[in-house]
């Protein structure tokens, strides 16, 4: 059965095991900086093992206390998936078109997707995008993503 | 509608870059990549040279910090930019050391090294109550007790120290700190016995007498600390230090390099820049492209003996 | 000394300096409130503008940005659950709960007042006993930092009260993430997979943006889908006199703690806020209120992070060593002005030292006034329809993640952590332990290994160095009291 209180700890255990498998492959550089008796591998190893123990404890806790998983919706709803897509699309667009154009386009698409008809919302959105542009590039002189085009 | 808008903007962009021919260079803002964080030594040198050069070139130079991997990220990024003279990079000694350590793919060969800006030797420092009074006291102590003298290292590995260790056949207990701002308090607090930093990094402790300089690792004495003898004067033939310069991607047209080189020459000779460097106890060392390129080649070679 | 202070105060109110100071504080607040833009960045960007300024005005402006920046982060933390800087991450715990209860104005006023108390007390301590505090700070080295980090990590148990195991899991995830990059002692690449951007490890700011801002935006978006929107409660009521009385002792204690933490090079406002929060919760008679809108918890975090401002100037002014990144820029600013920070500054340029002191006093007052006057305006932000606020938070997050290092790679990190934070939220695993672990993990590991190098592999430093021992005992005590508290509640 897919129960997130079981699946997640199991996933973390698998992840920790992968980490443990990666640790022996650390390449020690030839140029010798001396190292302590506790070396580069020590901390990650301890942490990965600790993580596995905690996950086992979490699974045990669930068993002992008979914690009921609160009936809950799936982790990703339609809206959060839309949000995710929006995020990634914005990040991609901004690296091509730069901040100003990407933001204007994405804000418009967002409002259209949510079926907003209020003109004031569109105006507010454009106003905000331009104000931030001005604030960053003219007042604080912080470089915004410029895009590669 | 939106598509048309987009196309227009894209076209405008293409025209803008096409018109940026070498003849009317510079026709837009120049970006200077600093591979270290805002507020550090390399950053302030970068920002000051940008400030002094912008009026000479008649265009704005904006500084862009791109940190990571002890400078590797920013310098690699700089090497991969369009070779149109609008993206320049502050290069530091790490461009010679990191590739040899396998920590960076790009090397000095991926750049045209326009000008060296400054060259700072390392100074050997101990706390004011230290039993060491000369570099030979330190070497003596390291010989009688190998690996026992605690050295506050500003980086791992520390090439200043390795140079001394290789030459003298000694071994110190190098404890890596995160830069001079951690290494100096460690010596002040008596947790470690000795450190090596550039004069600018320790000028206030030297002036106030909290730290004592055992020697400077250059051929000649440094004007900011004229009383400190060189290691060579004390019979230890070791020099070491760090340097910074400005570079452009290797395919940048020669005319642009000449324009920039002349501008940097003027900037480095300007009163503002000289004053800034003097107050930070940093030494201006202007080298032209041929000299600088040869210098980096030599330094790469000398570092390779330290790394192996 | 009083003479210098008075003339310094006079200078701070002069026509040449006062506008610069207000500009600095206001700019700092705005920068701090925007995710990704920090006080350090603001100060570094303004540095070249100080080249042409007179020394006092230059320092005043930079200090204004510093003080404003630390405070500004909490405005967005309280209103939007998106801390502007890591120093405000602890503010979210109670500040946002208050906003949800319709008490945003009260929370904002408490935050402004507590920040003011933190800044004021720490400035007074700086003026009064800076050299003594510097001697204390110099006694800190690798063993002490290790013990401090260890103590800090025990706070994870205290900020994950609902299910300690889940909090600990978040902690180990964070610690494991903090090992990514070139190992600071031996330069061994760990989990870098040849990606150069990972060599210096995962930057804490994009993680902060992802875990808090982006995941919160995704959460809000999900709620938008649910049609029946409950009208949000909102009250314009500010804090009461009773509130002030109740937060005063906590605020002063946190200010003192924050000043000491700030005085130690390498430990800053982020650590201080969590330590003070933890301490306030430990001594509280109602620890269960913490995390559900405790005004004491909010005040402790706020006073704790602003308490660092005075402390971090201690090593700078007395030793000439910067205590944190902001102090490093201030050091540069002083040097450019031809001044030598360190013990000589007090004897050679007392007017500068006391000019800095008095401008800190004035900057804190300015912060309080701007903070209180601004509440009405800030509250408008929470009245912006959620529908519009969500893309704004997303845009600011992405731009902020980019601006910190001009890198799309960091944008990617922020998005990944945004998704992680969102999923963890669904699993009721708290995100703040991840952040705390990423801040403290490298500090713990590096300093443990440094200590072992210093003492030739002997572990005796754990009990032979009094300050280290004290922190280790505090750590044990902190764990013990959390366990006891948990037994009581279950």
What does this structure look like?
The complex is a heterotrimer of chains A (149), B (308) and C (490). Chain A is mostly helical and 149 residues long. Chain A has helices at 4-22, 42-65, 78-97, 99-113, 119-139. Chain A starts with a helix and ends in a 10-residue tail after the last helix. The model of chain A has no long low-confidence stretch (mean pLDDT 83). Chain B is globular. Mean pLDDT of chain B is 86; it is low at 8-20. With 308 residues, chain B is α/β, with parallel strands linked by helices. Chain B folds into two domains: 27-119 and 243-307, 3-Layer(aba) Sandwich (D-Maltodextrin-Binding Protein, domain 2); 123-239, Periplasmic binding protein-like II (D-Maltodextrin-Binding Protein, domain 2). A six-stranded mixed β-sheet of chain B has the order 2-1-3-10-4-11, with helices on both faces. A five-stranded mixed β-sheet of chain B has the order 7-6-8-5-9, with helices on one face. Chain B has eleven helices and eleven strands. Chain C has 490 residues and is an all-alpha fold. In chain C, 75% of the residues lie in helices and 1% in strands. Chain C contains 20 helices and two strands. The radius of gyration of chain C is 22 Å and the shape is globular. Classes of the chains: A mainly alpha (149), B alpha/beta (308), C mainly alpha (490). Chains A and C meet through helix 1, helix 2, helix 3, helix 4 and helix 5 of A and helix 2, helix 3, helix 8, strand 2 and helix 9 of C. Chain B: Residues 1-22 form the signal peptide. Chain B: Belongs to the UPF0065 (bug) family. Chain B: Keywords: Signal. Chain B: This is Tripartite tricarboxylate transporter substrate binding protein.
């Amino acid at each position: 059965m897919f129960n997130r209180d079981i699946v997640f700890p199991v996933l973390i255990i698998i992840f920790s095991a992968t980490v443990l498998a990666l640790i022996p492959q650390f390449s020690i550089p030839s140029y010798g900086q001396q190292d302590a008796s506790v070396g580069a591998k020590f901390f990650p190893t301890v942490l990965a093992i600790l993580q596995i123990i905690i996950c086992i404890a979490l699974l045990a806790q669930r068993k002992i206390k008979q914690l009921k998983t609160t009936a809950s919706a799936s982790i990703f709803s339609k809206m959060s998936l839309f949000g995710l897509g929006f995020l990634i699309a914005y990040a991609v667009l901004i690296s091509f078109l730069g901040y100003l154009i990407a933001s204007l386009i994405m804000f418009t698409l967002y409002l259209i997707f949510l079926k907003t008809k209020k003109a004031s919302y569109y105006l507010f959105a454009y106003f905000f995008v331009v104000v931030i542009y001005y604030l960053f590039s003219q007042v604080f002189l912080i470089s915004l993503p410029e895009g590669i085009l | 509608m939106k598509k048309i808008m987009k196309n227009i903007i894209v076209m405008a962009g293409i025209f803008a870059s096409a018109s940026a021919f070498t003849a009317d260079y510079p026709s837009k803002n120049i970006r200077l990549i600093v591979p270290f964080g805002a507020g550090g030594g390399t950053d302030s040198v970068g920002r000051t040279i940008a400030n002094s050069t912008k009026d000479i070139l008649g265009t704005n130079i904006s500084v862009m910090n791109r940190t990571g991997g002890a400078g590797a990220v920013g310098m690699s990024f700089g090497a991969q930019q369009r070779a149109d003279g609008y993206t320049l990079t502050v290069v530091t000694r790490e461009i010679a050391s990191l590739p040899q350590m396998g920590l960076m793919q790009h090397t000095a060969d991926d750049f045209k090294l326009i000008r060296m800006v400054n060259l700072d030797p390392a100074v050997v420092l101990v706390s004011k109550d230290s039993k060491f009074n000369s570099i030979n006291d330190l070497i003596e102590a390291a010989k009688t007790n190998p690996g026992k003298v605690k050295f506050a290292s500003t980086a791992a590995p520390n090439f200043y120290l390795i140079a001394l260790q290789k030459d003298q056949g000694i071994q110190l207990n190098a404890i890596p700190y995160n830069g001079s701002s951690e290494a100096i308090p460690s010596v002040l607090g008596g947790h470690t016995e000795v450190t090596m930093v550039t004069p600018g990094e320790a000028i206030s402790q030297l002036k106030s007498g909290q730290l004592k300089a055992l020697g400077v690792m250059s051929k000649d004495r440094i004007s900011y600390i004229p009383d400190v003898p060189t290691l060579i004067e004390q019979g230890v033939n070791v020099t070491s230090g760090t340097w910074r310069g400005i570079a452009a991607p290797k395919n940048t047209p020669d005319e642009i390099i000449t324009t920039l080189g002349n501008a940097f020459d003027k900037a480095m000779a300007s009163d503002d820049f000289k004053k800034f460097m003097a107050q930070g106890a940093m030494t201006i060392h202007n080298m032209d492209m041929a000299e600088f390129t040869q210098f980096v080649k030599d330094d790469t070679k000398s570092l390779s003996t330290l790394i192996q | 000394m009083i003479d210098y202070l008075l003339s310094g105060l006079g200078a701070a109110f002069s026509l040449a300096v006062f506008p610069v100071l207000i500009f600095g504080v206001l700019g700092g607040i705005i920068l701090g409130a925007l995710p990704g833009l920090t006080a350090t960045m603001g100060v570094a960007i303004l540095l070249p503008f100080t080249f042409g300024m007179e020394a006092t005005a230059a320092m005043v402006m930079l200090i204004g940005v510093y003080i404003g920046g630390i405070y500004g982060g909490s405005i967005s933390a309280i209103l939007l659950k998106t801390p502007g800087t890591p120093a405000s991450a602890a503010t979210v715990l109670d500040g946002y709960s208050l906003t949800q209860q319709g008490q945003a104005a009260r929370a904002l006023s408490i935050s402004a007042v507590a920040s003011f108390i933190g800044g004021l007390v720490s400035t007074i301590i700086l003026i009064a006993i800076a050299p003594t505090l510097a001697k204390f700070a110099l006694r800190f080295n690798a063993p002490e930092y290790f013990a401090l980090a260890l103590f800090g990590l025990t706070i994870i148990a205290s900020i994950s009260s609902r299910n300690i195991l889940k909090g600990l899991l978040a902690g180990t995830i964070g610690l494991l993430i903090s090992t990514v990059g070139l190992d600071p002692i031996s330069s061994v690449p760990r989990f870098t997979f040849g990606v150069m951007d990972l060599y210096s490890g995962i930057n804490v700011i994009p993680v902060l943006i992802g875990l808090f801002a982006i995941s919160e935006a995704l959460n809000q978006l999900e709620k938008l889908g649910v049609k029946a929107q409950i009208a949000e409660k909102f009250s314009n009521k500010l804090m009461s006199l009773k509130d002030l009385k109740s937060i005063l002792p906590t605020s002063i204690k946190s200010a003192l703690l924050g000043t000491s933490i700030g005085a130690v090079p390498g430990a800053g406002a982020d650590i201080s806020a969590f330590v003070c929060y933890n301490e306030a919760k430990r001594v509280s008679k109602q620890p269960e209120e913490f995390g559900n809108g405790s005004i004491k918890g909010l005040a402790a975090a706020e006073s704790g992070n602003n308490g660092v401002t005075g402390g971090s100037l201690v090593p700078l002014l007395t030793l000439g060593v910067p205590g944190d990144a902001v102090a490093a820029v201030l050091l540069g600013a002083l040097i450019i002005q031809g001044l030598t920070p360190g013990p000589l500054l007090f004897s050679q340029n007392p007017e500068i030292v006391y000019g800095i002191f008095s401008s800190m006093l004035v900057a804190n007052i300015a912060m309080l006034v701007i903070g209180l006057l601004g509440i009405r305006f800030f509250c408008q932000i929470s009245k912006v329809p959620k529908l519009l606020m969500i893309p704004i938070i997303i845009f600011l997050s992405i731009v902020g993640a980019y601006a910190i290092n001009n890198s799309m790679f960091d944008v990617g990190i922020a998005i990944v952590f945004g998704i992680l934070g969102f999923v963890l939220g669904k699993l009721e695993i708290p995100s703040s332990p991840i952040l705390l672990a990423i801040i403290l993990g490298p500090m713990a590991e590096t300093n443990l290994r440094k200590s072992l190098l210093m003492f030739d592999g002997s572990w005796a430093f754990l009990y032979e160095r009094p300050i280290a021992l004290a922190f280790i005992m505090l750590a044990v005590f902190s764990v013990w009291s959390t366990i006891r508290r948990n037994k009581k509640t279950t």
